[in-house]
Each structure stands twice: as structure tokens, then as C-alpha cells.
TrEMBL record:
This is Adenylate kinase. Signal peptide: none annotated. The keyword Kinase applies. Keywords: Kinase, Transferase. It comes from Cellulomonas biazotea. InterPro entries: Cytidylate_Kinase-2, P-loop_NTPase. SUPFAM superfamilies: P-loop containing nucleoside triphosphate hydrolases. Gene3D superfamilies: P-loop containing nucleotide triphosphate hydrolases. The keyword Transferase applies.
Length: 194
């Protein structure tokens, strides 16, 4: 029996695990739209966008012609989505060991800080934030303190059976899984697109 067709995916996991990178690659392989939830829920100046406004933006993205063939959304934002993205065919959970996540988040944060790389809406990570003691102000500290929480939260989701959860425990597993994704067959001539 062939594996189920995946057209709508949520990629979740700890900060620095590679959610956006994997989601972008999966969207490319599937010919689907990529939706980065951080770009939706964060506004300029590292302020959180009004939740209703953000949900409106997300609804618009999901209704766009680009998302008609499917979508791959990355990010957690579970407390403010209010059911949006709950129709995913699967949740892809990057459940990497803490040492892998921490190595990635430190490297990424240093690179972004040194290069002054813009993330979205003019927001940039700064090296100064690495000195902050508050996890919500220091992405490395956030990843350290939230690791266990994300692991428990997504293990609980998987246990409910409400949605298919694809648990990837190492970047090698993620690469192998990504290689299994195939775009849908194009519609036959005269057949309406889904």
C-alpha cells in the first residue's frame, strides 16, 4: 500500500532544530506554499503581532492560489493559532537531542548576529541578546529551557492519535524522510485542479 499523500504539513520542534530549513525544502519537493509562522506572528521591532491580525494574515496565506496545491508551515505558535493549521495531513516533529539543537542554535545565532541577517520585517538577532538572562530575550537560553517542554507537548499530541505525527529524531532521519516526498501527479488534461 502506498504511503498517504501529504499536501499540508506542520513542521514543529525546538528553536534551532531546523524547522524552517526542512519546511522550505519539503515545500519545494511538494510544489506547495511555505508558511513561516514567525513571519506571521512577529511584527516589526520584535513585537508580537495582534493575534487576530496574525490569524487573518495566516488565513489569507492559506487561501492564496500558492497554497491551493498544499502548504508546509513551520513554527510552534500553538497557543495563538486557534485551530488554524489543524487540518494538516501530518505534523513533522523535529525531536533532535538537546546537544544537536544547542549546537545548531548557537551557530545560527552567532552567524545571524555577526552578519546582521534580517529575519522578517526588519528584525535581526543581536549578539548582545546572548548575554540576557531571560529566555524570551535570549534564543539560546530559550532553546535550552524549552527542550523538555516541546518534547512532552509533541509526545502528548502524538499519543492522542488526532493527527499523524512524524517524529524525526536526528537530521539524518529528516534527510531520509525528505527524500520520500514526491509532488502530486499533475491533473489530467480537462480535469479540474484540486
Amino acid at each position: 500500500m502506498p504511503p498517504p499523500v501529504l499536501r499540508r504539513l506542520r513542521v514543529v520542534g525546538n528553536s534551532g532544530s531546523g524547522k524552517t530549513t526542512l519546511a522550505r525544502a519539503a515545500a519545494g519537493r511538494l510544489g506547495a506554499a511555505h508558511v513561516e509562522l514567525d513571519a506571521v506572528f512577529w511584527a516589526e521591532g520584535w513585537t508580537k503581532r495582534d493575534p487576530e491580525e496574525a490569524r487573518g494574515l495566516l488565513r489569507d496565506l492559506l487561501a492564496s492560489p500558492a497554497a491551493r496545491a498544499g502548504w508546509v508551515a513551520d513554527g510552534n505558535w500553538n497557543s495563538v493559532r486557534q485551530g488554524l493549521l489543524d487540518d494538516a495531513d501530518a505534523v513533522v516533529w523535529l525531536d533532535y537531542p538537546r546537544r544537536v539543537v544547542m549546537g545548531r542554535v548557537v551557530t545560527r545565532t552567532l552567524r545571524r548576529g555577526v552578519l546582521r541577517q534580517e529575519l522578517w520585517h526588519g528584525n535581526r538577532e543581536t549578539l548582545r541578546n546572548l548575554l540576557r538572562r531571560e529566555p524570551d530575550q535570549n534564543i539560546v537560553l530559550w532553546a535550552w529551557t524549552q527542550h523538555r517542554h516541546y518534547r512532552q507537548s509533541y509526545a502528548d499530541l502524538a499519543a492522542t492519535g488526532r493527527v499523524r505525527v512524524i517524529r524525526l529524531r536526528h537530521p539524518r532521519e529528516a534527510r531520509r524522510w525528505l527524500a520520500t516526498l514526491v509532488p502530486p501527479d499533475p491533473p489530467c488534461p480537462g480535469e479540474p485542479e484540486a
